[in-house]
Write a structure and sequence with these properties.
Blueprint lengths: L21 E5 L3 E2 L10 E6 L9 E7 L3 E2 L8 E9 L11 E11 L23 H13 L6 H12 L18 H28 L2 H15 L13 H17 L6 H25 L9 H18 L4 H16 L15 H22 L7 H5 L2 H6 L21 H14 L2 H13 L7 H4 L4 H11 L14 E4 L4 E6 L8 E6 L15 E6 L2 E4 L11 H7 L8 E3 L10 H6 L3 E7 L3 E7 L11 E11 L3 E14 L1 E7 L4 E3 L2 E5 L3 E10 L3 E7 L17 E7 L2 E14 L7 E7 L2 E8 L2 E7 L3 E2 L1
Parallel strand pairs: 1-7
Antiparallel strand pairs: 2-5, 3-4, 3-6, 6-7, 8-9, 9-10, 10-11, 11-12, 13-18, 14-15, 15-16, 16-17, 17-24, 18-23, 19-20, 20-21, 21-24, 22-23, 25-26, 26-27, 27-28
């Protein structure tokens, strides 16, 4: 039998999976690189025998896409699989791939397309509550108007929209050229429109209030009259399009019984057109089942496809096909941005938005079909990502876009992690939520709150959906958390004791600078004793602003190095972004120190083909201070710029530097540089950023330590975080023994030693 020629994987493409792995999920999630036309269908064979004998081989037929899973679990053991194009003639199969299913694998089968919606209610509503659940909710409200915080939702959300004029249809950009303030205002207006319809519809139905229902209907019909080819079209402003589509879906679903046939037809058709715009984009154009890294496209599966298609199910055949695609994507491929460790390569800000939408969608799928996608390993662990990489008491202490707004982790992070507490029972997740709400009981009206969420509706939904959840006792948090899937490592000393908390976060990511990531492999941030000391520099003005492209995406704004004045690839070509990757090579937790080694050689390859190696080693010694070793090797003599960023000026004293804040301080010392220190300077200039974007923003300071030139460079740096006024002395002794140089670091009678020999070793 001939072997099917397989399309080669690219850095952007989906991978052939499983391929030699021991799987922790049962059944396996099969993916492969699609072949040729999208009209092709596939068949897949699975067997415990490599020769696929008849009668002992399972076969899946007529697969429309290059991913699938089974509706039943497999016995633990070794298996083989292959696929072919669906054809009436002789089949040509792909090469055979092997995998193992472990005894401890989580059981997460997915019901087949034929059976998937058999438990779904054919009536309306279907999104969140069905008819039976509405009747139960109404009965509870008759006894207690505060049931599931309904009274708060009514007072803070419903009354805010009752008798208010519905928002006007957003206007186009001047000369149809995107302007960030208008882009943001337009999607905020669309969020207002969504909340307007949803709040009045839900309250009207639950209270049997005809006045609220009529106001909701009027608003729904107004939204249905908006031009689907105008400023709220997916290709014009996708953030507007997502909110309009969901608003139509929710209103259509909840008000279905109160609409005339003509009104239903008008809303249904408009909803279908807008859903099709999104579906065509993600399935046919962006092809997120092949090219994985489109943040908005993946998010639209949750924010548009799932709720809209559930609302339209039974009316359009396409709605069922799109819904199948979305559910299977979440069950098989999701998420492109992380893995079984629960990390999120786009950072904590985009974790927040992505999780908010995907969890709402999964709740809708679960309530309508009974399919529980939360059992997948990623969702069982992803609450650890904000817990340890965006701790509740920190600010300006994370990576990627939206990480430096200067605020503590906000309410939506807390609401997300509370829902994951409801799913997993984690007491630590519940603790995070409670600490945020304790610090900020009132929710601010900033655009990233009011323009995105209705917390009072969200709170009511959670308290209903997870009313029977049991939260376990809190567990002792780990000192070190390594998210291998995204290449992030967090150190949290005294995570829950804010006065003594030291937070250190570093990354060297296989995702490089793709999407909302930056050219910042081998970087770090440091937050201690209640204040940020070393920060990721810059502000999030908006995607593609000059601050974004010329500063924040570039290596010069991060706490890593330039080589010959050049940094990592930070421009907009996705292939190059993914190739500009790093990797965490080792994380070890020993009795007297934590050791981290990361390598960013590939990240500089586009700009510096002469670079042979760049490794950063980090030692957190006796949970007290950090020793950092940067080792660089190039084909020709090169110089290093060792960079550091702070919100306040550095005090420079010889080869020492200090940061002084109200509650925390940092002492830094340049212990060793193999080529000598050529100069130390600081600046408060955001190089390359348009002046108008800086208005009203506080300065930040950028430290630059320049080395001499050499083929091999080794730089050793000492960082000592302290409470303000604290006397924490680290004595450094140099011992030169011929070709070998030893450094001894002594603090409180405990000694840590390093040997310099073209690199450093404990």
């Amino acid at each position: 039998m001939r072997e099917l020629p397989e399309t080669r994987e690219s850095v952007l493409s989906i991978k052939y999976h499983p391929d030699g792995q021991v799987l922790m999920e049962n059944p396996p999630r099969f993916t492969w690189v699609p072949s040729g036309s999208e009209d092709l269908q596939y068949r897949l064979q699975l067997s415990a025998f490599e020769d696929f004998p008849e009668g002992k081989t399972e076969e899946l037929r007529h697969l429309p896409y290059n991913f699938c899973t089974l509706d039943h679990i497999l016995e633990p053991g070794t298996y083989y699989w292959r696929y072919s194009l669906e054809d009436e003639n002789e089949y040509t199969f792909s090469r055979i791939r092997r995998f193992e299913i472990s005894e401890s694998a989580v059981k997460t089968p997915l019901p087949s397309r034929e059976m998937r919606y058999s438990n779904g209610d054919s009536g309306h509503p279907r999104i969140w509550l069905n008819g039976r659940e509405i009747a139960e909710f109404q009965k509870e409200l008759e006894q207690d108007c505060s049931y599931c915080r309904f009274e708060t939702f009514y007072r803070r959300s419903v009354m805010d929209y009752k008798d208010r004029e519905f928002v006007k249809e957003p206007l186009p950009y001047p000369e149809n050229k995107r302007v960030i303030p208008l882009w943001r205002q337009n999607y905020m207006d669309c969020q207002e429109a969504l909340c307007h319809i949803r709040s009045l519809a839900v309250a009207g139905v639950l209270l049997k209030d005809r006045e609220l229902i009529e106001q909701a209907k009027e608003s729904l019909m107004e939204m249905a009259s908006w031009d689907s080819e105008g400023p709220t079209k997916r290709d014009y402003n996708d953030e507007c399009a997502f909110r309009v589509a969901y608003g139509l879906a929710f209103g259509y679903d909840w008000l279905y019984g109160y609409l005339t046939e003509e009104e239903r037809s008008q809303v249904s058709r408009q909803l279908f057109v807008r859903t099709k715009q999104v579906a065509d984009h993600i399935i046919a154009r962006t092809r997120i089942h092949y090219s994985l890294y489109d943040s908005h496209a993946v998010r639209s599966l949750s924010s548009v496809i799932i709720p809209c298609c559930i609302a339209l199910l039974g009316e359009y055949e396409e709605a069922r096909l799109w819904l199948d695609y979305a559910i299977e994507y979440l069950s098989v491929i999701y998420t492109p941005w992380g893995g079984e460790d629960g990390g999120w390569a786009e950072g904590a800000g985009y974790w927040t938005t992505a999780m908010a939408f995907v969890m709402e969608a999964m709740n809708t799928v679960k309530s309508y079909t009974g399919i529980d996608l939360y059992q997948r390993p990623f969702f069982q662990k992803t609450g650890n990502f904000p817990l340890y990489c965006n701790p509740v008491d920190t600010y300006r202490a994370s990576f990627c876009d939206q990480s430096n707004l200067g605020d503590y982790p906000g309410h939506k992070v807390a609401f997300n992690i509370r829902q994951l507490a409801g799913v997993t029972g984690s007491g630590n997740y519940q603790w995070f939520y409670e600490k945020v709400m304790e610090r900020e009981p009132e929710i601010s009206q900033e655009f990233y709150n009011k323009g995105w969420w209705d917390f009072y509706f969200d709170d009511m939904v959670y308290r209903y959906d997870y009313r029977d959840s049991i939260i376990k006792e809190q567990e002792e948090p780990p000192l070190v958390s390594w998210f291998r899937d995204v290449g992030w490592v967090a150190i949290n000393k005294d995570l829950k004791n804010f006065d003594d908390h030291i937070f250190f976060l570093t990354k060297s990511s296989p995702y490089g600078s793709v999407s909302h990531s930056h050219g910042d492999q081998n970087t770090f941030v440091l937050f201690a004793y209640g204040e940020p000391l070393i920060i990721q520099s810059g502000y999030y003005i908006g995607f593609n602003s000059s601050m974004h492209r010329q500063w924040r995406r570039q290596t010069k704004s991060h706490n890593t190095i330039l080589i010959n004045g050049k940094g990592q690839y930070g421009e907009m070509d996705k292939v190059r972004q993914l190739k500009a990757r790093g990797r965490v090579e080792a994380v070890e937790e020993r009795v007297d120190f934590v050791y981290i080694r990361e390598n960013a050689t590939n990240a500089y390859g586009e700009q510096l083909p002469e670079l042979k190696n760049y490794t950063r080693e980090i030692y957190f010694v006796n949970q007290s201070y950090f020793v950092m070793v940067d080792s660089v090797e190039t084909e020709n003599p090169s110089s290093i710029d060792w960079l550091l960023h702070s919100q306040v000026p550095f005090e420079l004293v010889g080869e020492k530097f200090f940061i002084h804040r109200e509650r925390a301080e940092l002492e830094g010392r340049l212990v060793y540089c193999s080529s000598g220190i050529a100069g130390i300077s600081q600046s408060d200039v955001f190089e390359g950023v348009a002046e108008e974007e800086l208005k009203g923003l506080d300065n930040q300071w950028h430290l630059d330590v320049k080395s001499g030139r050499a083929l091999k460079q080794v730089m050793v740096t000492l960082l000592i975080p302290k409470k303000a006024g604290q006397q924490k002395q680290v004595n450094v002794i140099k011992d030169d023994q011929g070709m070998d140089i030893f450094y001894y670091f002594d603090c409180d009678g405990k000694t840590f030693s390093l040997k310099v020999d073209g690199g450093c070793r404990h």
